Structure formats: C-alpha cells, structure tokens
C-alpha cells in the first residue's frame, strides 16, 4: 500500500523589525513584524504558499504578540508632545499677564524666565524672549483663549502650575492691580480649576478671591 501524505501548515516569516511601545512591558522595546502564510505540504515538506494569513507584531523582550496597529501607539511620545504644548501655553500666558498693564519691566521678564525653566525643565533662549514678546503683543486673544486648548488635558496640579506661574508674574513688579486680579480670576475660570481650589491658592498668595 502506498500513501501520498499531504496537508497544510502555517509558516512564519519576519518581514520587519524596529522599536515600539510594548503595552505589556509598558516601555519602549524591540519588535519583529511577522507574516504568517499557509503552505501546502507533501510528505511534510512545504511546497507552495496557498494563502497569506496576516501579520502580527511580537515584542522581542516579553514575546507578547499584538495587532499591527500597536505600532501607531506611543503614550510617551504623546506625553512629550503634550508637555511641550503645555509649556508653550504657560509661557504665552505669562507674557500676556506681564503685558496686561501696558509695559513689560525687567523683573517680569526675569520671573518668566525662572518660571518657564521650572515648568519646561529647560532655559528660554534669550533670542526667543524678544520673539515671544512680539507674538504676545500681536495676539489679540484673551488669556482664556490661549489655555482653552490645553486645559481639558491638564490635571489640577498642571492647572495650579499655570495659575501660580501667572501669579508670580503679576507679582513681579511689586504690585498687583485690579486688572491683574481680574485677569487671574479669568485664567482660573478658563483652565476650569475648581473654585475652592483656586480660592485656596489666591488666599495663600494674599490675592482677592473669586
Ligand atoms: Zn514586551
């Protein structure tokens, strides 16, 4: 008796590799992109491909496998982008505050440089200061329009940082006038900081509450 032994089996082939954010390792890792195909076999020897079955991503560290869409995710990159946008908005708010009383004195600029380096963890380039002043002067939007875009993604701590930065700038020239107080109240509302939380900060800074 003579049998022809035939069948199918899946074969894997590496079609790509690189770095990605592994959701299981919760960190950046290497990956392999693997294509799977079904092959026709004769006497267990694959002869030809009968069907492409798809591709998957495998983490080279934990060996977990994922749909290819995982390569588009990157929470760390998203966080970096958000922090950059947040720093830019905080800087613009501070210059806007400083310009509210008509002129900008050196103590205010010093304060902004200090506050910005605390928030962004880097120094402002002095050449950027002139450019930022011009941009803030030209921009007719209110402070609330500036922060409207970043506020929804901020937690209360982030909101507090923005408000305290603005307060430090308002205080830099020694006096806080009623228009600055109005601006600070507007800012607290625009970033949607809970009123009791905002008033706690204002009380601590000896500024009239909302
Ligand atoms: Zn992993």
UniProtKB/TrEMBL annotation:
A Pfam family of this chain: TerB
Top-level taxon of origin: Bacteria
Domain Zinc-ribbon: from-to ranges: 21-69
Domain Co-chaperone DjlA N-terminal residues, every copy: 92-196
Name this protein carries in UniProt: TerB family tellurite resistance protein
The species this protein was found in: Yoonia phaeophyticola
Lineage: Bacteria, Pseudomonadati, Pseudomonadota, Alphaproteobacteria, Rhodobacterales
């Amino acid at each position: 008796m003579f049998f022809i032994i035939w069948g199918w089996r899946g074969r894997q082939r590496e079609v790509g590799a690189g770095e990605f954010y592994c959701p299981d390792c919760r960190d950046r890792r290497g990956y392999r992109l693997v294509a799977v195909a079904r092959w026709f076999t004769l006497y267990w020897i694959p002869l030809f491909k009968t069907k492409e079955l798809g591709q998957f991503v495998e983490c080279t560290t934990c060996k977990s496998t994922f749909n290819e869409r995982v390569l588009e995710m990157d929470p760390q990159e998203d966080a970096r982008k958000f922090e950059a946008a947040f720093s830019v908005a905080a800087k613009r708010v501070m210059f806007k505050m400083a310009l509210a009383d008509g002129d900008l004195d050196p103590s205010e600029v010093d304060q902004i440089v200090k506050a910005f380096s605390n928030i962004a963890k880097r120094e402002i380039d002095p050449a950027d200061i002139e450019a930022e002043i011009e941009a803030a002067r030209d921009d007719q939007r209110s402070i609330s329009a500036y922060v409207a875009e970043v506020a929804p993604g901020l937690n209360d701590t982030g909101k507090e940082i923005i408000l305290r930065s603005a307060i430090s700038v308002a205080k830099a020239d020694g006096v806080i006038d009623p228009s600055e107080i109005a601006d600070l109240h507007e800012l607290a509302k625009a970033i949607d900081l809970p009123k009791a939380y905002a008033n706690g900060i204002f009380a601590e800074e000896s500024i009239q509450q909302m």
